[in-house]
Structure formats: structure tokens, C-alpha cells
Amino acid sequence: MAVTSNNQFTAFSRQVGNRNFLSPVGFKFNLSKAPKVDFFSQSVSIPNISLGVAMQTTYLKDIPVPGDKMDYGDLDIEFFIDENLENYLQIEKWMRSLGFPESLAESIPLDPNEEDLLMGARSDGTLLVYNSSFQPIAKIFFRDMFPSALTPVPFSATATDINYIMATVTFKYTIFNVESLVGNES
User: Fold this and answer.
1) Which has more pLDDT, 112 or 138?
2) How confident is the model at residue 25 (pLDDT cuts 50, 70, 90)?
3) Which of 71, 77, 160, 186 lies most in the core, judged by the most C-beta atoms within 10 Å?
4) pTM given for the model
5) DSSP three-state, residue 21
């Protein structure tokens, strides 16, 4: 990094080192509780983050100040459904076990020795982001994920072209952390 003798940045040091744009096709998602969804993943977005805002009142104008709570958006993953419905059924069974199982065999086993009884209901996930040369540049860890929505599976006998069926699963999670895998970050 180019810095002058009085610790000021030069114009060169303010420039981005790598001028390539991030490719939208360079990603891989891993989900330990539903590994059959990984291979068929077609799209995923890094969720939005919002910081709450508190208002400091004054007699002239209220002034917004940074709040103390972070709000993380949902994680949506779009995937092709395999011909045997295996990846779709992994998510469906996971959701059924969380919500309204028809029998105790479908419910998630609770371990009384665990500090968090619902850890069997959750799973961690990792999104690997690749650069234009398909080298990993970042890992995004999603902690304590669980599915909250699964889109319908549309069938149509009137389709003239074969468009393979996709579904989108929406996950809630506790937090996500981004780890850079690039050695020379500024």
C-alpha cells in the first residue's frame, strides 16, 4: 500500500487492486443436512443486512444514529429438482420434522444432553465464492440454518419445450460471517 511520509494515502493506494468484475456463476453452496441440494443449486444471493436506527431527538430535528440490532435477510437457494425428487424430499422431510410430523418417527430426535435441544433441527451451511478464474476468494458461513419455505413444484402437460423443474427453498439462520480467502486484501 502506498502511503506518504505523513501517513496519507496516495491516489494509487485508493485504487482497487483487481479490476475484474465478480462473476455470477462462480459459487458453490454446501449444506450438511441436505447434501443432495448442493449439486443442483442454480442460484443463491448473499442476503441483505440492515442495521437498526435509533432517533436522537432535538428541538430542531430528529437525528438518526446507528442502532444496536442487526437484521439479516432470508437466504434463498434455487435448485433443479432431480428426477427421483431426492433433493426436494430432503428439504420437505426436514421441514415436516420441524413443523407437524404425522408420527414421532418423523420428528427430530431431541438430545437432552445438548445445551440447545433443537440443534438437530438446524444445520450450518457454507457458500464458496469463486473469482473469474474459478479460484475461491471468499467463504460465507451461515450458522444454525433451517428451512422456512419451499416453493411449489409445477407440472404442465401443455409445455412444448422441456424446462426442467426448479424449486426455491428459503432458510432462516442466526448469523452469517464472511471470510476472505484472498491474501492481499486492503
Assistant:
1) 138
2) confident
3) 77
4) 0.78
5) coil
